[in-house]
Protein 1
Amino acid sequence: MPAPPPTIRLRPVFIVMALGCSALFLLGPLAAAVVVVIFAPVDVSMYLAPGMIGFAIIMAWVMSSSVQWVELDDGVLRARKFLTRKIVVHRVRDIVTVEPLNSNLMGPMENALADRMMGASNRGYELRFRDGSKLGLARGDMKGLDEFLKVLAAEIAERCGPLDA
């Protein structure tokens, strides 16, 4: 029996958090918009309801990049999107760059604190593909990331040679 392909998975605590955030930030504003349309005066609901629906749409767009798992099998990366359950397939040879994840929104003190909490200054990587798509692999979120990255690095070296990272 062949060994299963190297796979990283979203940690269970993050699955629970993602489900809670989905309910709070997607279903909550939509339910509130319905309540506002039914019970609020028209001059109030005509502003609030579209804003709430717009907020839910933006949150769905932001959350749509999250993945539940990623596997590497014979030069092919497969990832299951958390929100849509869609399986996205990329070839390793289509990776253009591998960029470290960092937060430009936080200052030096906040970044240092986050590094201290995670025990490393490396928070993960973003794989960028030839077609312009991206795949984020976050150290804190994904179980088994370090081992997966070693296998991926060997696969990239074998199939692509050096990258721009």
Protein 2
Amino acid sequence: MVRPAPSSLRGDAAQDSHRRVDRTPATPGHQAAPPAAGASTARPRRRHIRPGRGLTSQRLIVDCARLEAGSVDRIEVVGRCRLDDPGVQGAAVVGGVVDLDVTVRVAGGAYEAAGRVAGTWTAECRRCLEEVRGPLEAVLREVFEWEPTEGETWPINDQRIDLAPAARETAMLSLPLAPLCSEDCAGPVPERFPTGPAAADLSRSTDV
């Protein structure tokens, strides 16, 4: 007996008819995958908001009612997410925007979101203080629960999850701490940061 090859993360609904997929483009504030008619909403409403986990005012809501009802077995969210406060310790995400390619599945009594976060970061070179930019690419793998564990999992609110705080945290943890514009960077340009007599002359000219 020959076993079929396992499906990829994204899958192919046309070739694997038993795998039901909901593909939804991601936009800030968008509510993905509205519930199907007659879908069960037996879960109680709970509101567990954890302080200090990068909770933001920007939202990317995914409605997981179809997952709960079994009408789909995964929801794919592909698009852009705008981050609130997209910087930390001298580095930031350019434009405050990241691209998401995330799949949401049922995981026991919880939901698991897994995929990638991508964008561009900007920071100061630690030697010459000039702007440095680089690609931001990170793996997002987070669990959403009805009763989340502080600092470990995220909340489910009325069968809905918000991917924006998790995307922000993933992006912030991927920002460089002390980047260099190049390995052979010689430091600040003398004309910008003069020392010795030149610095004294500049100081006197600005005091006049």
Protein 3
Amino acid sequence: MRKMFSFVKNTLVPLLLLSQAGPGAAASPAYPTAPELSFLYTAYVKCEGTLMESRGPHGIRKAIPIVGGNFTGPHLSGNDPSLAHEYHWPQTNVFSADTRYNLRTHDGENIFIQTSGPKSPSGQLHLRLVFETGSEKYYWLNNVLGRFMM
């Protein structure tokens, strides 16, 4: 036990102190800085009636086809050419969306998007967007977590 205490006192404690007081420690803020938000685009999505409705463990799942649309903004613009689905989980009177769809940018690149999130008690819908693309030009989107408000 004494050897373990000696190891902790002589080895680990100085390493921990060194890691906390490394270069730039004096300039580090006490709290992490908040991420900055940037407006990406506005989307207009065309949906058609409910494709299917089925009961599951989380309530009734409704599949609503997304049959087209477009998006415009300072960072992205193009259209939604593919057939996609928006799934709703209206369990206990709480609307929750789960969508997957593809975007095609104005310059022909493809971007896959997955969104999810519940409707707030105030009625606003707040979704989390996760982007995926192999495009070199838009690869930065793979590291973006978006927020959609409606």
Protein 4
Amino acid sequence: MSISPLNLDSRIMSRNPQLDISISRGDVYQEGIGSIEQASVFGEAALQEILKDKKKQLARYVRTRSDNPESKEKHPVSFDNEALRRMHVTSVEDSLYELRNAFALSAYHFWETSIYRWYLEDNPREFSKNLGPYAKLKSVMAELHKRDPGIPNAPDSHLEAVCRLANILKHTSSTSCEWMKNHAPPELQSIKDQIGQMPPGRSVRLTNEQLTWIFNIIRRSGPGYRAN
């Protein structure tokens, strides 16, 4: 067995190097995905504040404008300004969905890159390697578990759904869209319903609750997970 040393403080290392590596991997993994989720929370809160402000501006404008029948002819610019303010609200709402989609992708890619990192730690002579699609990464995870029992033998059963969602978000994969139509878990039912209904240029839309669910799936798919 060949495991590259990690930069652990010798003062906190036990006499079991494998145990130290397992603990370190678990801590790093859970801290990493937790940090990504925290960033998503901050981003969501910031955009919600912007959206709240834009809606206030629109409401204030509508409340104070002239509503007589001749206003549109006499003051066409004021009506254009209202349309512009409504567009601003829509733009921020769209940005919220884009933010959630970006963090969903980031969460899944964090799991992928973690598998690669652990594989290369255990195989230091391999500088680069394409480990293949999800099914292959899942089998690599099982092999890693044999060397390091701290790594789960398999990811959470719903991780494939997260993988398929990532493919839909990134590539609008027709294969993954078809998979989602037939196998979407209850938590992603709204995604299934959106497939085939999306206008050109727009991706599926995640709710904040779905993004939280995705983060939990990623947590359970790596080492160091502790159920609350």
